[in-house]
Structure formats: structure tokens, C-alpha cells
Design a protein that fits this description.
The chain is α+β, with helices and mostly antiparallel strands. It is built from 9 helices and 7 strands. Keywords: Membrane, Transmembrane, Transmembrane helix.
Length: 355
């Protein structure tokens, strides 16, 4: 009997691994396991007891096996073992096995004496002990079933994650088709414009580079300072087109272009300048931008002439607040962000650590 139960345990593990490669639910897997165990029990009894008696005994045995397995998994382990109440779990398990084994032995012996026995067999300790022992073996099997079902569930979840990842990658490839089509179209327009208006072609080229930055670089965790600076320069060049009068813009850089930083950290200040810090209706607008790398920090500063529009809106914009939240997520408290007015100038200051 013990060898038979050991064979069943091995079979359950193999069966679970096979089913994990198919689209079956844990419930379906349990039905299959119990069905196989019923057949194994039935055919093992068939030579001695005949078909009718074997069916009844196999059904009763499987019923009690299920009571032991699910009693352990859904009750004893849930209310005692998983909550760290080990003593109560061991005590409850022993009591549970004794009661289940006694009930099983009594019911099977009653059915045997009532319907099949030529001479009644007395109810004794030997039958109870045998029933408890086989119940203990099934009790061990319940742990194997639990591990098998957990493996089956985790395997299905892993397959679903892989499928979702593949779908995301496919969607990403699809999403990249349209930007690349647009880039190719811009290149064609660029060559046509270059023959008629080289200045217009230059702006198209800068727009294309900005769009490539958004598609290829902004999703990254880190970009080089050289990439970020090129993006800022392209943005500034395109914004100049919208301004009627010339703007005096000074961009000072003292840094290593290969240094890595999170993308889009410097853009907020420059964007605010063109949104709020320049009066497009007047001349004399002045902008100073400075990017300096010293020791293990990067300092980015902007300064522009203060006018009425910026005085009213600069302190209410969401750009600086959103930047501060992002900096907190990236660097904790290890950064410095300040904006202030001094005389006729508006200042912004950012200091972040670098690797």
C-alpha cells in the first residue's frame, strides 16, 4: 500500500508538470488527479473484490482521501499552520487523522458486513490502525498536492506574464512604425526644403531631432548630458521662430558631455522661460543659461528679465512642482531646487548629484 501511495505521489508531480504546459485551470487539474487516483484504487482492488465491490470501496476511499486532503489544506493549514500556531496544527492534525481513520474504517466495515460478507467481521483496533496509517500517507500526499497546485498556478502566471510581455513588445513595435514613418517623411521634406530654403530645412532637421529624442531617449532612465544639451539647443532654436524680436540668449556649458543624468530634468526651466519669461511684443529680452559640472554635482541655472506676465504666472505653474516631485523620487532629499526674483531678473537654480 505504501509503495502504491508513493507511486501516486510521483504520478501527481509528473501529471502537474505536463498539465502546466496546457491551458487548464487548477480545478481541472484536481479533477484529473482524483480521477486517476480513483482508477488506480479501483484496479488495485478489482482482482480480489470484483467490479461492484471495487467501485464502492474505491469511491469511499477517494471520498475520505479528499476529506483528509482538503481538511488539511483548507482548514488546518489555513487556520493554524499559516498563522504560526504550530502546536495547535500538530494537535489538530493528529485528532483529525484519528477521527477520519476511525470513521472510514467503521463505514467500510459496515458496508462490507451489510452487503458483501458471508460472515460478519468485528470492528477492532487493527482495522482502525490500518485506516489511520493509510490516512497518514494521504495526509503527506496533501502536501505534495499543495506544492503541485502551487507550481501549476505559478507556471500559469509566468506564462501569462510572458504572453503579456510579448504583446507589449508587439504593441511597442507597432507604435514605432508611425514615428519612423513620420521621420522618413520629414527627411524627404528636409531634402526638398534644402534646395529651396536651407534655413527652413534646418528647422525641419531640429524638429526631427526633438521628435527622435522623445521617442528614443526620453523613455530611458539615463541619457548623456550631450544628448540633453542637444535637445535643449534644438528646442531653443525652434522657439526663436515664434518670437518676433531677437532674444539675447547665452548658454554656458562647463561639463562632461558623457555624464549620465535622467532625461527631461533640465527642460522645465527652459520651457518656463519661453512660456512666461519672454515678452514677445517687446525688444530687449535677455536669457542666461548655465550648466556647470563640479565634483559630484551638476548645477543648472537660468536667468531672464522679469516682466508682468511672469510675475503673475511663474509661481502658479505646475512645471516646477512636478519637477520637484520627480526629483524627490529620483534623489530623495539629495538635491536643491530654488526659484526667486532679484531686482528685474527671475532666477531658477537646480543642483543634483551625478555618478
Amino acid at each position: 500500500m505504501v509503495e502504491k501511495k508513493a507511486g501516486i505521489m510521483k504520478f501527481i508531480v509528473i501529471l502537474t508538470m505536463n498539465f502546466s504546459n496546457r491551458k487548464a485551470s487548477p480545478v481541472q487539474l484536481q479533477y484529473v488527479i482524483w480521477g486517476i487516483m480513483f482508477l488506480v484504487t479501483f484496479f488495485s482492488m478489482l482482482p480480489m473484490d470484483g467490479p461492484g465491490q471495487s467501485v464502492i470501496y474505491a469511491a469511499l476511499n477517494i471520498l475520505f482521501y479528499a476529506i483528509i486532503v482538503y481538511g488539511n489544506l483548507n482548514f488546518l493549514m489555513h487556520f493554524f499552520y499559516e498563522k504560526g500556531r504550530i502546536v495547535q496544527y500538530v494537535t489538530g492534525s493528529i485528532l483529525f487523522l484519528v477521527l477520519a481513520g476511525t470513521a472510514r474504517a467503521g463505514l467500510i466495515l459496515f458496508i462490507y458486513n451489510r452487503f458483501f460478507a458471508e460472515k460478519p467481521t468485528p470492528f477492532g483496533i487493527k482495522a482502525i490502525a490500518y485506516s489511520i496509517f493509510t490516512g497518514l500517507v494521504v495526509y503527506v500526499v496533501s502536501f505534495i498536492i499543495r506544492l503541485a497546485l502551487r507550481y501549476f498556478t505559478l507556471k500559469q502566471q509566468a506564462d501569462e506574464i510572458i504572453a503579456q510581455k510579448s504583446q507589449v513588445e508587439l504593441d511597442l513595435l507597432k507604435s514605432q512604425v508611425q514615428p519612423h514613418f513620420l521621420f522618413n517623411t520629414l527627411n524627404n521634406i528636409y531634402y526638398e526644403a534644402y534646395r529651396e530654403s536651407p534655413r527652413t530645412a534646418l528647422f525641419i532637421e531640429r524638429l526631427s531631432e526633438i521628435m527622435r529624442y522623445f521617442v528614443d531617449e526620453s523613455p530611458r532612465k539615463v541619457v548623456t548630458l550631450g544628448t540633453e544639451i542637444q535637445f535643449l539647443e534644438n528646442y531653443i532654436a525652434l522657439e526663436r521662430i515664434r518670437i518676433r524680436h531677437e532674444v539675447a540668449i547665452t548658454f554656458t556649458r562647463q561639463c562632461n558631455s558623457a555624464t549620465g543624468i535622467p532625461p527631461m530634468l533640465l527642460m522645465t526651466f527652459v520651457e518656463n522661460i519661453f512660456k512666461h519669461g519672454i515678452d514677445k511684443s517687446i525688444t530687449g529680452n535677455e536669457v542666461n543659461i548655465s550648466l556647470v559640472q563640479s565634483d559630484a554635482h551638476l548645477v543648472f541655472q537660468t536667468m531672464n528679465l522679469l516682466h508682468i506676465q511672469q510675475t503673475d504666472t511663474a509661481t502658479r505653474g505646475f512645471g516646477i512642482k512636478n519637477l520637484e516631485k520627480r526629483l524627490s523620487l529620483l534623489f530623495g532629499n539629495n538635491f536643491e531646487l530654488r526659484t526667486w526674483t532679484a531686482g528685474k531678473y527671475y532666477h531658477a537654480f537646480l543642483k543634483i548629484p551625478i555618478q
